[in-house]
Amino acid sequence: MSRSGHPNEPSQDHFERDVALLELAEFASEMCGTPVTLSPTGQVRLEASQPLNEVQKKTLALVASQAEARIGLLRRIEGLREEKRRQAERDHFLHIVTDRLPMRVGYIDRNHRYVFLNGEYERQFGFAPGEGAGRSVREIVGRAGYEIAIPFINRALNGETHTQEFPVTYPFGERRVRVSYVADPAPDGSIRGVIVQVQDVTDIYADAQRLREAQARLDGILANEDVATWLLDIGTGQIGGDKNLGAMFGFDPDEARENGADEYIDRIHEDDREKVRIALGDSIEHGRRYEVEFRIAIDGSERWVLSRGTPEVGLDGKVLRIPGVVVDITAQVLARREVERLNDVLEATVAERTAELQDAVREAEAFNYAVAHDLRTPIRMVAASSHILLEEVAPLIDEENRRLLARQCENAVRLGRLVDELLRLSRLAKVDVRREDLDVTALASSVFGEIAGQDMSNGCVLEAQPGMTASADPTLVRTVLYNLLGNACKFSPRGGVMAVRESDGVFSVVDQGVGFPMECAQKIFIPFERLVSETDFQGTGIGLANVERIIRRHGGRVWAESEPGHGATFRFTLGPR
User: Fold this and answer.
1) Tens of pLDDT, residues 343-372
2) How far is CA 154 from CA 110, 158, 196, 447, 547, in A?
3) 234: buried, middle or exposed (CB in 10 Å: 19+, 13-18, 0-12)?
4) Domain 225-328: what homologous superfamily?
């Protein structure tokens, strides 16, 4: 079979052999004067019918000897070619294997030149595949790297293997590497070269550092007498633990090394033993995490602990052992109970204070209602009698008395309006909110029409956003809009524009009025709080208090935004639909 694998395809070696034998056969035929052939093994075949003379015999012997020598040479050449092919295959597989290693691998000869570099090595230093071999160490790693590496390379060339770790700064950042220099001895004991292995151990080093830190933290935790470790062997039923475990359960530290599970359970408070057995059994049977709080009862004293464990399962799916920890939580349990006690006291106190506050509010509202209701008739009588006197005796009294009588009449009327507003405010605290689907656009237009019909619009114009809807009490919302739009008309310049808008459930009433400073924004919703004098703008100081109470009854909120001389915007929500 040829090297290519096809049985009928002649190899190059066979071709060269056949050509050489043919040349010898032609030479012999010419010298002997008769046809001569040579077999592939070099045997001479003569086709002459007459005996050969001495010259012919010597010629044939010489040809046979030359054929044998040439066949031997060609066989040696063929062997060398086969060895070269096999070496090429080995080199090919070496590159395949080393190029897939997660490290850089190279071979340096005694002249400090790289005979071999794997792909990772060449990529790391910016060489294309195959460009690194034959270059010096200085060419590959640079001057700085050469000065670091050459002492270790020389030590390896003297037969000393060495490994070191150190940080290296690359263009993409700093990494930590582990470099090994391994001597390659020849059969005679001399050192032919150095095998260099460079591994990036940044992540390994970081993991090791984190592991050391975690171990230090764990050691610190376990040094605390309130924390203990344990291990339950399912096969033997024994529990092993550290000295803290024995101390927690009242065992002598030496005795606590290998006690049975039942010996520990016997020291658990009798009211907690069953739940511990159930939790432990469930963990063993189903491989679930074990966690339970219980009390340890020793010599009449109790301590609360939290025990946790994670089962380790074998190949057959059965639990082999459960390692875990137990933590003394007595202080936390006592603190939790104290917090619960204080919460109970606080809730009782809040309930008591709330009841007292509700009683006080009811009493205040009842008083306000009674006072306002009882004042209505006398105030109306004062207003009526003052008006009658002003009409009947005006010609008989002087100007000053007429002015005083007119002021009395006006104040009586104003007081009557104030009493009416107080009654309305008192009723709002008791009225039920009856929600229904509400067309806010239509309601705003209707309220503004009512204000204009009472000649209170000050010539203002309303712009109501189409399609505004809500779920609210229509009567109460009408009162809100009446107060807000009435104020907007009152404080706006004649012919001003007012707007009612809605966005994401927030309604707003915008005017072009005198405005007010924002530090007064909260005061305007308090009864009788007025930011302007009554001589400039008439009012009772109750309207916005009514607005705030209605909005609060709906579960919403109301707020104002303004700046002196730049109008005001009142926004409100009406709670969930």
Assistant:
1) 999 999 888 888 877 776 666 666 565 555
2) 9, 6, 12, 101, 94
3) middle
4) PAS domain (3.30.450.20)
